[in-house]
Structure formats: C-alpha cells, structure tokens
Amino acid sequence: MNQYLIVGLVFLAVIALLATNKKIVETLKNIYKIEELRKRVLYTFGLLLIYRLGSFVVIPGIDPNALGEGSQYASQLEENGLLGLLNVFSGGAFGNAAIFALGVMPYITASIVIQLMGMMIPYFQKMQKEGESGRRKMNQWTRFLTIAVLILQGPAYIANLYHQAPNAFVYGNSFGTVCMMTVILIAGTMFIMWLGEKITDKGIGNGISLIIMIGIVARLPHALLAEVNARLQTASGNMIMLILEIVLLFLVFMATIALVQAVRKVPVQYAKRIVGNKQYGGVRQYIPLKMNAANVMPIIFAQALMFVPALFSSTAATFSNVTGFWYNFTLAVLVIAFTYFYTAIIINPQMMADDMKRNGGFIPGVKPGKQTVSYIDTIMTRITLPGSFFLAIVAILPALAMKFLGIQQAFAYFYGGTSLLIMVGVVLDTLKQIESYLLMRHYDGLMKTGRIQGRH
To answer: Is residue 150 situated within a structural domain?
Structure first.
C-alpha cells in the first residue's frame, strides 16, 4: 500500500499548490462568471468523460479477465514499444480491448496522408485553395480514408489479440465474430471523431487533440504507480531517486514549453494609404516564425520509419532495442532530417513574400521580391537548426531515461517523444483559447503578464 500512499501524496501536493495560488483561483472564478465560457468548459469535460468511460467498455465476446496483469498480452504491451505507445495514446483502451481500442490514430494516419497529398497532387492542392468549401471536402476525404484504414487495422488488431490471448475470445474467432468486432471498432473510432468535432464546435480547444491528450494523461497515475512500486522494491536511496525523477520531469516540461513557444519575430512595415478621410497602413507588424514549426510530425514520421529495419532479420536485433545506441542515433538523425523536410513543406517563403507585396508590406532594409524570399528562407534555416537538434533530444529522452535512470517504460514516455509534445502543445493551445475569452471580457489572463505569448 506504500506506493498508493506516495502517489496520492504527490497528487494532493499538486492540488494543494494550485489551490493556494491566488492567481489560479481568481482565474477559475472569472471562467465561471463568463456564461459562454463556463458552458463550453463543462461541455468539453462532459464529452471527455464519455470518451474515458468508453475506454473501459470491452468489445462483446472478449473476456477482460484474460487480459489482466500477468497475462501474455499484458507482457507484450510492456515489451513492445509500438504497442505500448498505442496503448498510451488510446488511454489504455488498446490494452483493455475496449470499443475505443484503436482510438483516433487511424484518423491521424488518414490526416497525414491527405495532408501530404495536398502538397503533391494538383486535385487536392486546388481543394486547399477553395476556402471553407475546400476544407469540408478535405475533411470528407479524410473520413473516407479513415474508414479504409480501420478496415485494415481492425482485423489486424483482433488477430494480434487472438494470437496473444486466445482464451479471451468467448465465442472463438470465426469469420462472423471477427466481422462483428471489426464493425464495433470502426464505430468506436468514428464515434470518437464525432466527439472531437463536437468539442471543437461547441467546447473549448481542438477536440481530437484534447482526446489524444486526455488519453495520455490518463496513463500518468498508472505509470507513476508502477514507477513508485519499482523503486520501493530496489535498494536504499530509492525515494531520493524518485524525487529526482519528478524534478527532472518538471524541468523537461519547462524546456519543452520553451521549445514550443519559441519564435523569431520578423518586422514588417506597411506603406501608408489614404482612402477618403481614413489612413490605412503605416504600422509595423511582425511575422512570428516558430523555431519548431514542424511540431510533433518529424518524430511521428521518424518513429514510423524505425519499424522498417526491424522487418529484416539482419538488422532486427540492432533496431529492436529501443535503448540501444544505433536505434537512438538513427532516430535522432531522422528527426533532424524530417524537421527540415516538413518545415520546408509547411513554410513557403515565396508565398509569404507575395502576400506582403500584395498588401503593401515590406521588411525594413530588404527589397521586396527575391531578396525577401531569400531573407525569410535564411532565417528559417538558422532557427530550424537548433529546433531540430532540440526535437531530436526530446525524441530520444525516453530511451535515455530508461537506460541511465532505470525508469520504467510506461513512466519514461512522459519524458519526451510524441507524448510530451502533444501534452504541452494541446495544453498551451487550450489555455490560449480560454485566455482570449477572459481578455475579451476585460479579465486578467492566465499568466501574470495577462497573456500567453511566444518567447523570442
């Protein structure tokens, strides 16, 4: 029971710290005073609660007792890095064989494919330029592709589940049973997508991102409990090591926030225009170029490619060890390469220069046209270099935490990689939306300065 007591004390300490912060208490009161914001926050919490409840509803025909701790399936989730990561993203639904087992990852996969097609295929490029109607068409294509991905992933998930825990299938794995379970998994993911869209429309924050984040955060108590239990079973000095781990985790979060918020502001001056009795332009604005414009995408692409060498027997032993040197070195190099690749795709200096010229804007000291394009491209190249190295460090931090600090795999996921970046990015985005409501009603924001802004 000692591990439960320690975890409880940690969370109570966090709650007490928040409760004694007058600024946070006052902000919560202001949120409650704004009726629209209060309804949106409660609506979001309600739909997220529905999602969490669905993560424990087991697929009909599956015995959940056969998937508990000590089973072969539970051991595989702990040993296999990919399956463990999928279980984290689904909030444990993957390991529970729940109706939401596949989570929103098929939708994320489809979104990435559609996004890449929008960069390479003229038909999708045209849709991207059609405004709102084009966006609706792209979303429709994403849904269709999500169903196609689910039709492939559903039977694969069931086959893997049957291979690891055949005694969990109450009615066997006949063709009819597999089809029934696949339909349920498809319906579960589509329902999650619907919840995400409703949160985006009527709640606060990006619905799909919040669902992914809440699934990751939901695994934190379980991961912390496992880590405390492991430390209590080791030799003396375990509690000091546990405190050191929590302090290190806090520092990693702070560094990641700095990475996500870091921007390079490029000044843009707009020429004066007089229309009638009104003057337009003549003001200086800034283009915020993010140091980590690619966000979490390079890590996702790099981790996907890291499973390819494991398919070949000659390299399987080298690349199956997620804490090994060559695995992490290759992962870091791929993250750096994909950061430059993805940044070059989403940041178009030529388009930015054309927009400035069309609106009568220019960068002081830089001629419009090719010089402006070259100037922006040079800045992006320079700020992407440290950003890519920082992102590579974030990608391999979980492996470093496991190898050098002996941290359990479930808890190590929170030290870096996609889990950490998603949590930080989603929380900051949601806080910015809440803050915009507060400032619009003339209340103080969530920070002492009154606004959440990027560092430069």
So the answer is: yes
